[in-house]
Amino acid sequence: xxxxxxxTEDMKNAxxxxxxxxxxxxxxxxxxxxQKEVDERVELDDAAVIAIxxxxxxxxxxxxxxxxxxxxxxxxDVEKAEVEVLKVYLPQRMTEAEITAAVQAIVAEVGAAGxxxxxxxxxxxxSQLAGKADMGLVSAAVKAALAP
Length: 148
What we know:
single chain, globular, mainly alpha
């Protein structure tokens, strides 16, 4: 079953269970997917759907930080609940050790020598680790690997 079909099925189950938080979050995800499909006039595959979920998760995490700094714990709690719903649609994430090993292999493969090659390395890393790893951790690992 494709990820889009799974999301639709989960939406139906959330409707039946009257789970408003889950239902609202899934509808938000479906709207983002549909918007991307209409804008680009393509049918999204699982990798593209995972990229959208990643983007929505990043937005939620940024919102949580902003709400907590403004002492709005009520709004931060809503965002945290949405994060938990969205995490279900991501594949198993790589550990920091796995990310470091993968980045070092890519650095060696690309032949990067120093911090000036970060763009070249990040391009290769994004294509190989997109959806599998937190890109914030990946970026830190690349910086560490290219540090003089």
